[in-house]
Amino acid sequence: MRTTGRRLRRGVTVGAALALVMLSVPAATATGSTATGSTATGSTVPSKVHQPWLWQATVEQRPAGPAALVFFTSRTRFLESTGVLVGRDGGYRLIPLHVGEDHGLLSPDGRHYLRPSGELLDLTTGQQHRPIHTGMQPLAWSPDGHRVLSTRSNDDAVISYGLDNQQLNDPEKPDDLLVLDPYRGTERVVAAGTFAAHTAAAWSPGGDLVAVAGPADVPASIAERQRLVVVDPTNGSVRWQVELGDRRMLAGPAAWHPDGRRIALLTFDGCAGLRCTSEQVAARTWRIEFLDAATGHAVGQPLPVAASTTEIVGWRGVDPVVKQSVVADGDDRRAVLAAVSPGGGRDVLVTAPPGSTDLAVPGELLARAAFGGPEPRPSPFAAPLWLYLALTVSTLAAIALLVRRLRRGRPADPVPST
Description:
418 residues; alpha+beta; 4-stranded antiparallel sheet; 5 helices; 32% strand
């Protein structure tokens, strides 16, 4: 019977040791990829990323350091659009979004994620605070990463009516263009003219000018006509403005060419307006056009792009790097970044997994055109601590149940004869 007792104690000891190992695993593998995955991404943008595990930890639970990129997908345990951070060491972490929240902005150094709610998430510590008032929509980080250009809606939430059933207020009011310091929590209104809404904005390479576009009034908003204004954000001095109409739009937060001489527009030919059918919308042909940054006049040759192009996110030399949504498998789509060149050339630089809807890369990596990094895979061990605790408790409970059953099945000690 001494042998059986020793076996029981040995089994409990081994089980406890296994539980301790399970708790220690996330500390050793919290940030890296699996052994079968690729090496760390370092200071380059991965050429391809993958779907996270359903139990992948969030940034708050296990920070993974500065981002190499962030993509968005609904194929997580949250069952709705969720940010997926891929760290520069190859680790994957989730960034859950609030209900109904739009996608935020990734800081140029990849260390912070600014939510439309005004919350600033530190990707290196997992801490989050709200230095900015709610009701804003961030449009673009400044090149130095110290300021954010944002828009704030001033529309009334409710229309009021008098006793004679006449409308008492005008709920549609011009929006404010703001320059925010997301670290200090300060904001300043930029007098860039009257806009019913701001749809896109871009900083000049030196950070001394901004280009902002959007409908000038309610009729223009209904007709989808936009105006482009270039303004000095420090004093509100407007350098020039042009009417873009309903077929041209500012090409995103990186629309300003790195040489500072041109501003890019996304333009299409075909049916425009709300009355277009889905077939007419699909038949549009798209291109990138350029305006002289000093005068607003057309300059250079246009570049043809695919209809799925949504914006310019950076530049590889003289070639714009655009965000696109392409067909992956069947009706599934995925987000990609591609460099487009004169003559219709297209070089895919980054590929997100099927079901991805958006993709963001830190500005400092885009500025260096640091593409072509390895393809890290998410580690199944980079899970929340509560999962390991649950597994440990389950393991210890199973061991205890096994010990109890062994004891019950042990034969009784014989009664000594007299």
